[in-house]
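re: ur question from earlier - yeah i can do the single chain one, its not a big deal. heres the input i used so u can compare w yours
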Amino acid sequence: MRTLALVVARVIAGVLLVLPVAHAETVSLPYDLMIDLPEGWRVDGPEQGKLGTDGLRRVQLICDTEACEKTQETCTVLMRRKPIEGDGDAAKVRALYESPFQRYLRLRAVLRNTSRDAEILKPLELVKIGERDWYRVETDARHNYKSGFFAETVVNGLYVGTICKSCETGAVRHQDGLRILTSLKLRALKAAGAH
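and the output i got, formated as tokens:
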């Protein structure tokens, strides 16, 4: 029964991603990246984010819609300025978790970042979101805690990650977070596509 529910949820999620959605604004991120925020979403703090001691720049996104009052959905976009070594973005993404030990460390960090007694809802795997390959893992938190959607990719040689959290308990969640990931583009490519 759980398998059927997951299949239905994936079909619904696929349909929702192709439906037109009103965009509140396009946000310019550091390192020539851009995202489109769904209606009701905004940057919380500076658009260029804050640089952490770990070398990651974090841009906080929050949702102010009526529905988000219940779900409390938020996303954080993480970027690293130092390029990842290797050939091509696709190969660099695949290399992020090619060893079992790297995968174990990532899953452990994801569970710790979600909440006590959280479980893996969708495994750490390479998936296509928009035009890019992303490593994605999704957690399911216990009642009254936020579940997490974690995704990582490489854009123009640079690491980009996202952490989206929501109190939504339904089979279909993190739809706005997926829309944000789908919209990720390089500023030069976005401008070229507008001509």
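The domain at 2-193 is CATH 3.40.1000.10 (Protein Transport Mog1p; Chain A). not sure if urs matches, ping me
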